[in-house]
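[User] I wish I could look at a protein chain and see how it folds. I have put the entry right below:
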Amino acid sequence: MIFYFTASGNSQAAAEQLAEGLGERVISIGLALRDGQFAYDLGADKYLGFVAPTFAYTLPGAVARFIEKLELKGYAGQYTFGVFTCGAASGDEGAALRQALLAKGLGWNGSFDVVMPDNFILWTPLPGEERLAATRAAARKRIDGILARILAGENGTVTEKAPKMPFMPLEKISTAAGTSKLYATDKCVGCGACANVCPMSCVKLVDHAPVWEGECCMCLACLHHCPQGAVEYADQTAGKKRYLNPDARPRLKNTY
């Protein structure tokens, strides 16, 4: 079984390529959080994988929340690994995932990095389409190499050090209280795409307009998935190109 967390499709595309090569099923962590589904049976699975983006060189807070609540039946020492999509390197994310899994009594066979387009446009504007396509092509080739290593039973990177930060903290935000830097411009048509993709269920439509209330993991899924480009973050995203990985078709439900 492969669990993945995605905002713009990079980790989903990686997880689906891995699942096809390993003959495993995939579960969206974001949808599982929304559904409150944390119990799974691994009895028929040979591998246990976690695919996630790198947030501030560690695990996204949403992934840490999911693993904390995770209940696994039928775990019998399956090959357990992490694959991290990142703009350059994953930093302490492998150490953070290892620590979280060991706390659940699970094993660890190491992690692998996959460089993907960096979608955190607050810090890094997106490059042109040619470079984006080249990065995705290199990522697919890299994942093929990871598949070969996993099928051969080889470990990924294993570090026993404690991570500097076990996960990127969740942030309480509120449109009503004026503490949310996420907002919708007058380009919003009230389609609800932002609310449908929020893994933390903190985006809701009020009078056909989105409001942000609750815990935010700063994945920016609401911003990237808005078909009108109406969602902005403070003054840091205006005029910047949005990004969705064309290799990943958005999933609206899990098969449990």
